[in-house]
Specification:
Blueprint lengths: L5 H15 L3 H5 L2 E8 L5 E3 L1 H13 L5 E11 L2 E11 L5 E13 L2 E9 L2 E4 L2 E4 L1
Parallel strand pairs: 1-6
Antiparallel strand pairs: 1-2, 3-4, 4-5, 5-6, 7-8
């Protein structure tokens, strides 16, 4: 059963807007000091400042992922699930659209964890294979 939490909805509206606009100061206001970001690659950034430093680097990378404003959220108490599309650079040097899913944990009105999952693309010859 999905439980809607208006406080979480406002938090995520602010977070997503700030993330899409690459507004690190506004993103920071949504994150707990102990924030942990687990990336699809297996990397983990622990602590709000470490995560923000990585976001700044990623936002500045012209080959980094590009996110659209099209996403949906499902609220389950202090767990929030987001689905979205992201344009990621494929091994062939072209951007490919992949599905993403993030699972967030919220405590005391701030995001404490963002666990990100994407469909991973590999290329074999001219064909595309999901793994």
């Amino acid at each position: 059963m999905t439980k809607t939490n208006d406080g979480h909805e406002a938090l995520f509206k602010t977070f997503v807007s700030a993330f899409l606009n690459k507004d690190l100061a506004q993103v920071a206001q949504c994150l707990a000091p102990q924030f942990e970001w687990r990336l699809p690659s297996g990397e983990t950034y622990t602590g709000k400042e470490n995560a923000l430093a990585f976001m700044a680097k990623r936002f500045a990378d012209p080959y980094g992922p590009e996110f659209s404003g099209s996403s949906s959220f499902s609220f389950h108490g202090d767990t929030v699930i987001q689905t979205y599309c992201v344009q990621a650079m494929g091994a062939n040097g072209r951007r490919q659209s992949v599905a993403g899913l993030d699972v967030y944990k919220v405590e005391e009105g701030l995001i404490v964890r963002k666990d990100a999952y994407w469909k991973q693309l590999t290329y074999s010859g001219s064909g595309m294979t999901l793994r």
